[in-house]
Amino acid sequence: MELYLTMELQNTQEDSVHILWFPKALSQDQIDHGCSNACTITALLISLNWNDTNRRIDLSKGCIKYGTEIATILRSSILRGNKIYKNSISSSPKNVINFTIPESAELIGSEMKKMFEWQSGIFLLDLGDSLHESLTEGLSIWEGSKPHWKPMLFVVLTTKNNSVLLVYQEEPKVVILIDTCSHQDKGAVIACVPQTELKALCRWYHCLLRKYFLDQPAFYELSFFYFKN
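Below the sequence we write its predicted structure tokens.
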């Protein structure tokens, strides 16, 4: 059994935010000698796996119930993301540090053809002051225009050199944030809230950036997408 599955997961709650910390061994910069700049590719791979397995979280049952299954998705996505990134960098004529969403999707290959980037934008705003409003506006537009089969909506949030994934579930209505980086003595983390508590999740993530990365982003990018039937 893999080391990260034998180690104790940390299941905590801060106000309405349910948090599941994985051991440091399960993080993007620790698995297979790591690659911290592969986070956008990895985020897309997680969304692909999440969609294909129709993974859903019921907060009434607690996040810890899903720990092993989520760890499996994260590990396979991190391994593949790091490999794709390293191969691309070694063969690239340019000094590329981070790839965009379209570039990352192209590097992953034909599996991403069913991905549809519904909306994206760069926000020249302080993340702590504006993230909740930006996400709420996007979600409001989505509610009025989403396809009839009600797919899960995914969002890649990019701040400087880091990307995290958000998942909007339809049933039950939950928002999940997935960050595959290591956080000092901790590894990857997922944080979940009912959709009505999105503001609390945004506040929690802003605090996480300041605590673990000493980062106060003055701009960020949001890319909303879903997978076609």
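Residues 208 and 214 are 9 Å apart (CA to CA).
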